[in-house]
Amino acid sequence: MELRWEGEPSLSTALEKLRIQAQVTPPPQWVRIVGGWSEFQFSERRMPTIQEINAAAPETPVFILHLYGRAMLNRAALQVLGITSKTSNPPGGVIERDSAGQPTGMLIAKPSALILYSTLAQGPALSKEHQYNSSRQFMRELNRLGVTSVIDAGGGGQQFPDDYDVINQLHANNELTVRIAYNLFAQKKGEELNDYQNWVEYLNYGDGDDMLRLNGAGENLAWSAADFENFLEPRPDLPVIMESELEDIVSLLVSKRWPFRIHATYDETISRFLNVFEKVDRETPFNGLRFIIDHAETISEHNIARVKALGGGIAVQHRMAFQGEYFIDRYGKDAAKQTPPISKMLEMGVPVGAGTDATRVASYNPWVALYWMVSGNTIGHTQLYDEANLLDRETALYLWTKGSSWFSGEEEVKGSIAPEAYADFAVLSDDFFKMEEAQIPSINSVMTVVGGSIVHGSGDFSSFNPPLPPAMPDWSPVNQFNLPSSGTSKNERPRQFSTHSCCDSACSVHGHNHVIAWQTPLPIDDKSKSAFWGAIGCSCFSI
Predict the structure, then answer these.
(1) Using CA atoms, how far apart are residues 257 and 204, in angstroms rounded to an integer?
(2) Nearest to 122 by CA among 29, 50, 189, 59
(3) Are 138 and 176 in contact (CB under 8 A)?
(4) Distance of CA 484 to the CA centre of its chain
């Protein structure tokens, strides 16, 4: 139900998409533009004005999220939400007002993004039927990009178990097309410990199966530990109560052998978290229990070493690709050169995995993230890193495959070509290792396989694309526009095999063009012929 501005080259075309979508979106629904864009991607290199948004959508409510710092509402949305000159600012947020005291439509996180996310949550929800359809559409979009597995680090507003009904139903109906390892995220301030005490009593780490399984706790363990990643504002200082609240929760999780992850942007925050973890470890040893520092943009060498000593890992995402310009404005170019210090993390031997942190701010497209890792550029083409913090393509892809498998405890079955590993792979539209760097974001998959079954096919493999119902509701932006993350690939023919995105060697039997074998008349059952592990299955193993 979201309109995406990912990849839009100009503000004028983005606003035209908004105008078209507003005309087909029926009351009481909103047009939502949530994540995947930055004004620096536009040729105009500026934000839309409230006046431009009102002109594009004079009657349909519009919510536009800008990074972690701002949201823009048009006049119709202000009216629906009842935001007036008398509306008070919420804690940690500001409603911008004009000289007459009237709200302009700009909401500002100072520094808390809760004002943004709580406003977004007030929009009309889709019916369960439409949520089910929408989830299938999004998984297919991920498959189109070559994604076969995801780790869900939780998110604000996602109540367990109620908000997991749709994904559980998809799983029960055998309609999941990506493997999901999910973490449980404490939702209500002041009740985080109660939530985890309740969950650990009736849930165990690893509950589920290889398609849908519980991956532990996080990324929010305690609201007092939230260091908001808003580079438009100064670094927040966490309250003094944070340590005691976090200690109680981490002690519980360690005693119950629940892996956990925690959101941490700044080194100052990470220092305080590690103080708590080391104290807990002295009383209840971690003993190999996996824990994860999420993001870690400004982590120091000293704290990388402390994470490693405790047996933890660091999950990095391409948030700097979207707000690197703002980081430079506040902290300077030199500080940005090691934000995050991925090369140093690898040099020091700590487990590192790569992801997107999608979809509220960053793009869900893995190839945009991979472009950032190897080029050091933001999506606005600002150079962030020098050679010391750039990754070669093989290393970057490793972090997206084998590297990330550690973070769901699935190193034995994901991220490598090996016996007993999952039969998950993608045939890519271009050769990631040889193509021009600037074209990397345009990569997509022409065939994606999960568990030996084809879940997406295009180009030469279109005949194998499984049927998918039309997007619902009929006014969905998916029905109005091309897929947002698609780019014009220079070569639509399959050239590269990928485990969750890659494979280093060609199949000696089929040359990785299995369609030739599948379409050859042979005296075997058709179902067995087309199955990856069937009578003419490939000798390649992948995640």
Answers:
(1) 9
(2) 29
(3) no
(4) 15
Q: What pLDDT digit, counting tens, does each position of 486-543 carry?
A: 443 333 334 343 443 334 333 433 334 443 343 434 333 443 333 333 333 333 323 3
Of the two residues 502 and 435, the one the predictor is more confident about is 435
> Which tokens go with 487?
């780019």
Only one residue has tokens 């030199």, namely 334
The pLDDT of residue 180 is above 80: yes
Q: Name 294's bridge partners.
A: 263, 315
The pLDDT confidence band at residue 483, using thresholds 50, 70 and 90, is low
Q: Per DSSP, what are the bridge partners of residue 454?
A: 449
- E strands, 98-217, are 103-109, 149-152, 179-184, 212-217
Strands (E), 146-224: 149-152, 179-184, 212-217
Residue of 343, 337, 264 whose CA lies nearest to 301: 343
What percent of the chain clears pLDDT 90, i.e. is strictly above it? 82
Q: Which domains does the chain have, with CATH numbers?
A: 11-120 (3.10.310), 189-204+217-408 (3.20.20.140), 425-530 (no CATH)
Of the candidates 165, 209, 164, 208, the residue with the CA atom closest to the CA atom of residue 184: 164
Q: Which candidate, 50, 79, 47, 52, places its Cα nearest to that of 66?
A: 47
Token pair belonging to 349: 């031997």
Q: Whole-prediction pTM value?
A: 0.88
Neighbours of 127 (CB within 10 A): 10
| Averaged pLDDT for residues 248-268 | 98
